[in-house]
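A.,

Following up on our hallway conversation. Structure tokens first:
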């Protein structure tokens, strides 16, 4: 397409680059939306792992007997496991907030993650810490074992993974909120 008029005096024609760049808040928003979706995927993966463990108890409550599963002697789920499983219900709210760039929905998503994910993870840490201390210090520890490993150690590893995933979700959500606020302020 032909230009309309003469080139501006004193310009080499290379001054178009500032118009070719995406505004910072849009770039930040796009990057953090993708990262938040990835963190949500890992949250769902952790939920599936925990659901497999809790599923054994559900089968037992429904009087469904599968010999191979019963032979594993998987311990009964604790209170915080049931509570943490509900944290996956926050994902549709977060995805909706990302799709609509909704500040209100993203705040609700963060609150749901805190209440349904972080609080039970802290409860798991509080429940596992005394047992882990006893396992580490006692000569004959009286802690629950599974496949030769202390349950409290397994939960500590799981809580550390869950804390990382939840932390990243909250971090990316906060960054999105900041980018969306900047856009609304302009």
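Then the amino acids I'd put at each of the 186 positions:
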């Amino acid at each position: 397409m032909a230009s309309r008029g003469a080139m501006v005096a004193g310009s080499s024609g290379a001054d178009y680059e500032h118009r070719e760049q995406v505004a910072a808040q849009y770039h930040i928003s796009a990057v953090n939306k993708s990262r938040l979706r990835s963190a949500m995927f890992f949250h769902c993966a952790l939920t599936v792992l925990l659901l497999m463990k809790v599923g054994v108890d559900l089968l037992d409550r429904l009087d469904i007997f599968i010999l191979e599963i019963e032979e594993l002697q998987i311990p009964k789920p604790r209170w915080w496991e049931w509570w943490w499983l509900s944290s996956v219900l926050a994902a549709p709210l977060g995805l909706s907030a990302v799709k609509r760039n909704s500040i209100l929905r993203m705040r609700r998503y963060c609150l749901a993650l805190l209440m349904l994910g972080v609080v039970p993870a802290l409860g798991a840490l509080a429940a596992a810490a005394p047992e882990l201390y006893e396992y580490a210090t006692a000569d004959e520890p009286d802690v629950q074992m599974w496949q030769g490993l202390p349950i409290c150690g397994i939960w500590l590893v799981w809580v550390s993974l869950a804390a990382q995933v939840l932390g990243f979700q909250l971090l990316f959500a906060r960054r999105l909120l900041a980018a969306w606020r900047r856009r609304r302020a302009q």
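The chain has one domain: 26-185. Curious whether your intuition agrees with the design.

B.
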